[in-house]
């Protein structure tokens, strides 16, 4: 397959609309249709089911997309790195975060990157809880440091940059606040405040509906931001899982952070969209990874 054929196929596989694909590629709709038909003739089978109302990938098309995407992405990244290396790392990079302790790491990374590539500027943006994927997809940020798990087909999970033990944020007057540690079974003892707009995979990992022993976890209110979580916990509306580092960054008289004794640690990783690549992204990723490993 020629490069323009690969790009046309992958764009149509994502858009599932000939008009939007043509607009994205800057060619006519007829050109896209002709290109796809040529690829199908060469392969020997239909890649898309077409009707007057919809376009959908066939099983053969899904297989080809799965096989092609990582190679195409690798080629794009190689070209971007070579191009930017040839002219030097210049321009702006935006990186998002939600947890304060990750913000500190990113600011250190900016300082180190600036010493290596002074013509490259990095903007660090604090994001609202639950806005990570939207910020990446809309291009508001190029990279984002967020809690795992993230399992989205258009999001690339990069290296882990922070690992921390879990804690339970509880109201200061709650019986759990007097304990040295809590266990996952204790989640059945108070309403669990949950985040809005998160995937089920994420919710299952951090905000379960049942304890490991099968006891139901009471449902508490939904919070849209970390400040909402703190307000709800401090007001006695429930409890919420977090990281032990929160005790240092978000200390409040009405909240106690009690470490879990039996929960796995929280991992934070660099995320980026499959559409985002380039030497700046890779250079910043290397710097953050170096600092995380050293610290």
UniProtKB/TrEMBL annotation:
Q: Which PROSITE patterns match?
A: HTH_LYSR
What InterPro entries does the record point to?
Answer: LysR_HTH_N (IPR000847), LysR_subst-bd (IPR005119), WH-like_DNA-bd_sf (IPR036388), WH_DNA-bd_sf (IPR036390)
Which UniProt keywords are present, listed alphabetically?
DNA-binding, Transcription, Transcription regulation
- Coiled-coil annotation: which residues? none
Does the record's keyword annotation contain Transcription?
A: yes
What are the residue boundaries of the HTH lysR-type domain, all occurrences included?
1-58
Protein family according to the UniProt entry: Belongs to the LysR transcriptional regulatory family.
Name of the protein this chain belongs to: LysR family transcriptional regulator
